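Good morning C.,

I know you're traveling, so I'll keep this short. The sequence:
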Amino acid sequence: MFNSVKTLFSKADSQHTLEFEEQDLVPIAAAMVLLEVAWADHVLQPEEKDLIETALTQLYGFDQTQAGRVLKEAESEHKRSTGLHKFTRTLNEQLDLEEKITLLTHLWRMNSLESASFHYEEHVIRKIADLLHLRHSEFIKAKLDAKQN
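The tokens, ready to paste straight into the viewer:
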């Protein structure tokens, strides 16, 4: 019985992954972690969506239409998702260290949208940094880079 349930979930998981083009997996994974930080307070503000689209255009060279499409796909996936592990695994497989730090900098920019640093968002950023296998010094570097810009 356990195997049949496990098979059912693996089929459902693979069906969701197949909905995306191969080249979209990394941007969607990046959008997912950005959404996770934005969603830390359980409210997705329009400014946060704008910042995610801006991050996608800067990270992947998308125009506004492409960034909006990826964000929409990520929002849909975020509602179905039960965790970040499959997305951070994709990022770990596809991004080099500098790309991970740049993504982390964008996560910190999400945190700085509000007037005071939001501790729930910081907790999520720390969790994502750990899942991306980043050192504490890289975590702090990204935070400082986000504050400077």
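Safe travels,
E.
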